[in-house]
Write a structure and sequence with these properties.
InterPro entries: Acyl-CoA_DS. GO terms for molecular function: iron ion binding; stearoyl-CoA 9-desaturase activity. By secondary structure, the chain is an all-alpha fold. The chain contains nine helices and no strands. It has a domain of 118 residues. Helix content is 62%, strand content 0%. The protein is flat, with a radius of gyration of 21 Å.
Length: 169
């Protein structure tokens, strides 16, 4: 009741195939290969756990915390949301920590995150959850951006990022 499904495809399903083709995005094979290699390396590292020295564990923990700080305190809170102001030494540290996480540079990360909040759950959202769980968490990294992400992303005010020499380094 209140819902009607209309089949607008021809007898051969031509319109449906055309819509599916238009919705598909080109795969970024470099990202697919890098992600596969990253996971192969992670699986291999499990074999090395029994041989790891205490200093290796400590260094790994320090690197993990720096990565987390670079993303959460840097790219996310400082540069994407402008939640606080930071002096140059802290901005340099957060930029270095962010780069260790291999999650794009600060400018791209912040631009995509601002797009995500401004255009949430639309085609202009880089990791639109309407496209499914896998796409919103990882899949968006494996395909070229939707044209709406690019077009609407160009209209965002990114002047603060462009004016920050640490971001643009």
């Amino acid at each position: 009741e209140g819902c009607e499904v209309v089949d607008r495809t021809g007898p051969d399903g031509a319109e449906s195939r055309e819509l599916n083709r238009a919705k598909r995005q080109r795969v970024v094979w470099r990202n697919v290969i890098l992600m596969a290699l990253l996971h192969i390396g992670a699986l291999y590292s499990l074999l090395l756990i029994p041989k790891a020295h205490l200093l290796t564990w400590i260094w790994s923990y320090i690197c993990f915390m720096m990565n987390a700080l670079g993303i959460t305190a840097g790219a996310h809170r400082l540069w994407s949301h402008r939640s606080y102001k930071a002096k140059l030494p802290l901005r340099i540290f957060l930029a270095a920590a962010n780069s260790m996480a291999f999650q794009n540079d600060i400018f791209e990360w912040s631009r995509d995150h601002r797009s995500h909040h401004k255009f949430s759950e639309t085609d202009a959202d880089p990791h639109n959850a309407q496209r499914g769980f896998f796409f919103s968490h990882v899949g968006w990294l494996f395909v070229h951006k939707h044209k709406d992400v690019i077009e609407k992303g160009k209209r965002l005010d990114l002047s603060d990022l462009l004016a920050d020499p640490v971001v643009m380094f």
